[in-house]
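User: I've been trying to design a sequence by hand for this structure and keep getting stuck. Would you show me what you'd pick, starting by listing the structure so we're on the same page?

Assistant: Good idea, let's start from the same input. This is the structure you sent:
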């Protein structure tokens, strides 16, 4: 089983890189036959969705090489950890756009949410739950939500001690949900 850990911000100086590294570090220490892979949205340079076709009917044939690469990376994963900032009480536009470019690559898979923001990213998490439901995705109950005021030193995450246990629970739930989705 392969789980992609997606860095959902593309901004310069983004906090999400350090959060994603923290998630990957802890996930890589887990026992079992699950592989956790970093998927950095910024490295794909996904353009704005201007295409007239509906992604669900595109049969994974997209008009841009960057979207084809993004499609292949997402399609190769059985489940996901979305590391998401909260921007303006909602989800980051770049990640929402990249999610919107695809459909079958997400459909029926499982996801866990790790957020950060002024209010710990909880509003972004609630929006992601609604968005991902459209893809018939299972989003696990446990989430990790970190405060940019209390858990960061510049752009480096300094998670509260309890966050490691929260992440372990989220990953347990994600692995189980992914197995169920594959059955």
């Amino acid at each position: 089983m392969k789980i992609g850990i997606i860095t959902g911000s593309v901004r310069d100086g983004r906090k999400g890189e350090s959060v994603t590294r923290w998630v990957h570090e802890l996930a890589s220490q887990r026992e079992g036959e699950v592989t956790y892979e970093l998927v950095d949205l910024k490295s794909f340079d996904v353009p704005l969705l201007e295409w007239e076709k509906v992604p669900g009917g595109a049969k994974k044939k997209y008009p841009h090489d960057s979207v084809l690469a993004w499609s292949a990376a997402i399609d190769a994963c059985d489940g996901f950890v979305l590391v998401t900032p909260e921007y303006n009480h909602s989800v980051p536009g770049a990640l929402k756009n990249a999610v919107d470019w695809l459909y079958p690559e997400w459909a029926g898979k499982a996801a866990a949410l790790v957020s950060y923001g002024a209010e710990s990213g909880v509003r972004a998490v609630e929006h992601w739950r609604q968005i991902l439901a459209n893809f018939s995705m299972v989003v696990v109950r446990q989430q990790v939500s970190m405060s940019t005021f209390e858990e960061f030193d510049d752009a480096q995450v300094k998670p509260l001690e309890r966050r490691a246990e929260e992440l372990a629970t989220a990953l347990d739930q994600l692995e189980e949900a992914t197995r169920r989705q594959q059955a």
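That's my pick for every position. To get oriented when you compare it with your attempt: The mean pLDDT is 97. The two ends are 12 Å apart (CA to CA).
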